[in-house]
Design brief:
Layout: H1 2-11, H2 56-65, E1 68-75, E2 78-84, E3 94-95, H3 101-113, H4 124-127, H5 136-139, H6 144-148, H7 185-194, H8 198-210, E4 215-219, E5 222-227, H9 229-240, E6 244-245, E7 248-249, H10 253-259, E8 275-276, E9 281-283, E10 290-292, E11 304-308, E12 312-317, E13 322-328, H11 341-353
Antiparallel strand pairs: 1-2, 1-13, 3-5, 4-5, 6-7, 8-11, 9-10, 11-12, 12-13
Length: 354
């Protein structure tokens, strides 16, 4: 059963979380933020951190072997490792897959802070009734928070189509956890509430403020973000710093804390589209089974992460001041089989940083 859990962690569309970053003391290095509109980014060496340099090459060899395109490690905001594999380069973009769900969750929090919406309001307050095909009384139970936490109660077995006919009742909102593409309706909620397009609001309130590049595109009904590796790292750094970029609170601190801690009592390893490590149990996409133990046994307990199909990853580890990015093809090309990529990857990362 544990191997099955590992397979879903690596292969399905997923994302992990826990404690927020601690406030630095006067004796600690100040968090670094790369300048906006510039390609400059300060670095530091693994040797300066006391890391095991002999284990760096085995880590890179493993990443290359496992179809990676890029790998990046930030410590306190500065680049310690940045590597590209298999013909990919720093200037090329790649898709985030479901790791991008955290972008939607983050912008929802920004819109709430600006007074445009409340996550506790029902979705139909913004989209009108009939946005699903379920009875009105049941539809009115579904709040924005239910979409954030994957507890809408809608049928997750009908594919990615989120047209009303395909949004069908299984259980009352809040009573069942099931990973579902219906979360994308939050983008419509934000657009309606702000009277702007989703792209415009996202770009002005998040992307541009932290110097990201990238764009949204639609594929088979999915809303997917695409960017270069450094842009993904910028977003991870914002999350590590509890929603602050330099001296600006881009995302409310309380919202970020709620997003990266357990959000409901069904799947303890899920926040607001962030996945959380170190919990006593977890549930995974396309199954109602509960697995005991933490999501990735070889990773730090306080890690939270955004994980997407074909092993797109943002790992955030507050206790170690780390942001780690992996982009690429699926690590395991054996088809519908077991994969231990997250477990082995973290074994090799730990050998370097511990």
């Amino acid at each position: 059963m544990k191997k099955i859990a590992l397979f879903f962690v690596s292969l399905m569309l997923i994302s992990c979380g826990s404690d927020d970053a601690s406030t630095p003391t006067n004796s600690e290095e100040t968090m670094y933020f790369p300048p906006i509109g510039s390609s400059s980014w300060e670095t530091k060496t693994a040797a300066s951190l006391g890391w095991n340099q002999a284990q760096v090459q085995p880590l890179l060899d493993y990443l290359a072997l496992k179809n990676s395109k890029s790998f990046m490690v930030l410590h306190n905001g500065k680049i310690v490792m940045e590597h590209y594999f298999n013909g990919h380069s720093a200037s090329e973009s790649w898709y985030w897959a479901s790791a991008g769900k955290t972008l939607t969750a983050t912008v929802t929090g920004i819109a709430e802070n600006e007074g445009f919406l409340s996550i506790n309001n029902k979705v139909s307050d913004y989209l009108g009734t009939g946005w699903t095909s379920i009875p009105l009384a049941k539809e009115n139970l579904i709040t924005n928070k239910h979409l954030l936490t994957m507890t809408s109660g809608l049928n997750d077995a009908l594919g990615d189509d989120v047209s009303p006919a395909n949004l069908q009742y299984v259980a009352d909102a809040g009573s069942r956890w099931a990973y579902h593409n219906v979360y994308v309706k939050l983008q419509d909620v934000v657009a309606e509430a702000t009277n702007q397009t989703w792209n415009n609001y996202f770009n002005t309130k998040l992307r541009n403020k932290i110097g990201m590049s990238g764009f949204w595109f639609s594929l088979d009904g999915l809303s997917i973000y695409r960017s270069d590796t450094r842009s993904m790292a910028r977003f991870g750094l914002l999350a590590l710093n509890n929603g602050i970029w330099e001296n600006s609170q881009i995302v409310p601190a309380t919202y970020m804390q709620n997003a990266t801690t357990t959000s409901q009592n069904i799947n303890l390893a899920y926040g607001y589209m962030w996945w959380l490590n170190g919990k006593s149990s977890f549930r995974l996409p396309q199954t109602q089974l509960q697995f005991n133990g933490k999501l990735i046994t070889t990773a730090p307990d306080d890690m939270y992460c955004a994980l997407g199909k074909n092993d797109q990853k943002i790992y955030v580890v507050p206790s170690k001041k780390l942001v780690i990015i992996r982009m690429g093809e699926a690590a395991d090309n054996s088809g519908f089989g077991l994969s231990d990529f997250d477990e082995v990857l973290w074994q090799k990362i730990s050998a370097v940083i511990n």
